[in-house]
């Protein structure tokens, strides 16, 4: 799959009306497993969600004439929406039966599904809750490996874990679009290594003027329209 990133005035994540709003709207569903007895660590859940988006984008079924390719193209022609819902027990088992890909991190499990119409959620996913994805880290994450991609979160915004999962997924996708075919293949072959960290205020100011891919949220939930949420710092883009 190839994709040309939108021009600065026509970002799929910005809120100003554009021709993208006239296209049928699709959403990429992600479901995170949150068992009461063993919830995942927040950073691991964020990183696993971001990798799940990349794995779907790089999957043969999402490219060319693959069975998910048309849905992915329709989704990319409109606003790039992602919705994260939570599941446990039987809910998680039912979600596993739908077409999709499950990614497993150190503590987290996230299943990503091919895009669906905004109002066309399967009943197995429609009943899952959006709220409640409040997670924490048992201890602060270590400094990231700067030779690998880092998705930097805005330190001045407060978002739920579910919202942050969607935002880092956006950041990973923007990095994917910005890379050359060779760099994409190298990332895929390596297993999509990445880290998610919250920037310091000073570093965030540098990042937002660096020219690296920057996510500006459409403001449908939690935060104001146009808020800068994530900068995707991939070594190949520096």
> So, CATH architecture?
3-Layer(aba) Sandwich
Judging from the principal axes of the Cα atoms, what is the shape? globular
The total count of strands amounts to: 9
Low-pLDDT runs: 1-10
CATH class, please? Alpha Beta
Question: What's the structural blueprint in terms of helices and strands?
Answer:
Layout: E1 26-33, H1 42-58, H2 69-76, E2 81-87, H3 89-96, E3 101-104, E4 109-112, E5 116-117, H4 123-126, E6 150-153, H5 161-178, H6 181-189, E7 195-198, H7 201-208, E8 214-216, E9 228-233
Parallel strand pairs: 1-2, 6-7
Antiparallel strand pairs: 1-4, 1-5, 3-4, 6-9, 8-9
Describe this structure in words.
This protein is of the alpha+beta class and about 240 residues long. It has one domain (about 25-130, about 145-235): Bit1. It contains seven helices and nine strands, in the order E-H-H-E-H-E-E-E-H-E-H-H-E-H-E-E. It has helices at about 40-60, 70-75, 90-95, 125, 160-180, 180-190, 200-210; strands at about 25-35, 80-85, 100-105, 110, 115, 150-155, 195-200, 215, 230-235. It is globular, with a radius of gyration of 17 Å. The chain starts with about 25 loop residues before the first strand and ends in a 5-residue tail after the last strand. The model is unreliable at about 1-10 (pLDDT under 50). It comes from Streptomyces griseoluteus. Keywords: Hydrolase. Its EC number is 3.1.1.29. It holds the Pfam family PTH2.
Which key terms come to mind for this protein?
single chain; 238 residues; alpha+beta; Bit1; 5-stranded mixed β-sheet; 4-stranded mixed β-sheet; 7 helices; 9 strands; 18% strand; globular; disordered N terminus; hydrolase; peptidyl-tRNA hydrolase
